[in-house]
Amino acid sequence: LKQGAEDYFNKPLIMMDVLSTIAKVIQIRYFKLKWPKVEKKIIESNMPYKIKLNLLTQCCENKIKFDEKITMKDVYQFFPELVALNIKSDTEVPKDILDTGVMLFVDELKEKLESINA
Hints:
Layout: H1 15-44, H2 49-65, H3 72-78, H4 97-100, H5 102-117
């Protein structure tokens, strides 16, 4: 794993575990391959707020699904104007963001930005 393996198999091999692990690795690699292109299009376009929220929600769901941390970098991908808050991009976002609502989280950040700019 330290040298770059995505996962490993325990012996004895159970076919269902093998198939599940392979599917997971394929999904992770596909996501890592396709995501930069999607990210670039999002940043370059003037996508409506609700669509950005939906995409951020999906991003958070995928991160949780693959047991990855959600960071401010993920938020900045969809809402680059929030970088002005000077929150480090590697700052972890609370995992309950999906429970409390992505829209509420983003709106609170936007309010903080507006109060700073006022």
